[in-house]
Design brief:
The chain is an alpha+beta fold. About 35% of the residues lie in helices and about 20% in strands. The chain has nine helices and 13 strands. A hairpin with a 5-residue loop joins strand 7 and strand 8. Helix 3 runs parallel beside helix 8.
């Protein structure tokens, strides 16, 4: 589109690129569970993407009549930009409801941390650079002479190439990490129902696996530099299914359990129950007690059984990934396992003291 629209193509691409996120306009009318289900839901599906491309094509072609852009070309632009947005979401842990309304389960390849700057950086840099470049006159080839690729087009292709290449490298690293986790579980003879791996925040070198063994989850870390025979230190999290008995009939509980795709922990709470999502890397706080590391789940809620309005109250994560997290993560990536591991406790469960967790060395 840059050949036809010039710099305006960047502005139109930015506008079309945020359209899938406009599902937030209905948030004032939804409760907490509804927001979780709706966000990155229908607006990220193939059905809505196709309808948007078809519906906007006529209007955009009309706006760009002087540039002689046809409806198929305009619709193709919408589909390409929308599709790139959805694909980027599918590479994260949360994923997107690509097959809505036929299939409620989200597509998540769990290969990139959310908001990965190394994925977005080349695209943003290329777009900004292109925005400040002067417009280039279009040159028509004479005879069989091939016109050289413009500087703007080269920048565009390089930005896309770097981002796409980084995503492919991340997917390859996931396979390397996954093989290491699988080898460790096989040596231990651990039987499990399913397993997922995802990178730790801000990098694709240290990977985290969550293993569903029925009544408990195992969480372990390994880097892509470790040999397959290097043992994984697994932390054992009991699921606590019985804790949801008091709030199991509340629709918000069912929606929340579905949104987490079953990767949830539950603990008793005076108001009803506490539920945490184990898919996302937990924050880790060292030193609150000697030789201990406290894990706080990135997303957790209190389900209030007597609440007449919104029964869910989200718990904010204290500390996040600040403090010692990044220095210790860097040390762990390059082989210093002692800087990362310690006797684990589950912290941040509302109304409860930190819970000591088991370890399988």
């Amino acid at each position: 589109m840059g050949k036809r629209l010039g710099k305006r193509a960047l502005a139109w691409g930015a506008l079309l690129g945020i359209l899938p996120e406009l599902d937030v306009v209905v948030f004032p009318f939804l409760d907490t569970a509804g927001k979780l289900v709706w966000h990155q839901g229908a607006s990220h599906s193939l059905v809505v993407m196709g309808a948007a491309a078809y519906g906007l094509a006529h209007g955009l072609a009309k706006i760009w009549r002087k540039e002689k852009i046809t409806k198929p070309q305009a619709g193709g632009l919408v589909a390409a930009v929308w599709g790139a947005h959805v694909l980027a979401e599918c590479l994260t842990v949360a994923g997107a409801a690509v097959l809505w309304p036929l299939v409620g389960k989200r597509v998540a390849f769990e290969s990139l941390p959310p908001g990965d700057l190394l994925l977005a950086g080349p695209l943003v840099a290329a777009a900004l650079w292109m925005a400040f470049l002067p417009e280039e006159p279009q040159k028509k080839p004479r005879g069989k002479k091939v016109v050289a690729t413009s500087k703007r087009r080269k920048l565009c292709l390089r930005g896309l190439g770097l981002s796409a290449g980084y995503a492919l490298i991340a997917i390859g690293m996931k396979f390397v990490a996954s093989a290491g986790f699988e080898a460790d579980l096989a040596r231990r003879g651990v039987k499990y129902e399913r397993r997922m791996e995802s990178p730790t925040p801000y990098d694709i070198l240290l990977w985290r696996a969550v293993v569903d063994s029925g009544d408990e989850f195992r969480v372990g870390y390994r880097t892509i530099f470790e040999l397959p025979e290097t043992p994984v230190r697994w932390t054992i999290y009991p699921k606590g299914k019985d804790a949801l008995a008091a709030v199991a009939e509340i629709p918000a509980t069912q929606s929340l359990a579905k949104w987490t795709d079953g990767w949830w922990l539950a603990r008793p709470n005076a108001q009803g129950a506490w539920l945490g999502d184990l898919r996302f890397p937990e924050s880790r706080i060292w030193g609150s007690k000697k030789d201990m590391v406290d894990s706080r789940l990135a997303f957790s809620w209190v389900i209030r059984k007597t609440e007449k309005g919104d029964p869910l109250r989200q718990i904010s994560q204290e500390g996040g990934y600040g403090g010692d997290y990044l220095p210790r993560m860097g040390a762990r990536i390059f082989g210093n396992r002692g800087s990362w591991e310690a006797n684990p406790r589950l912290a941040g469960v509302t109304g409860s003291l930190p819970e000591f967790l088991g370890v399988d060395e």
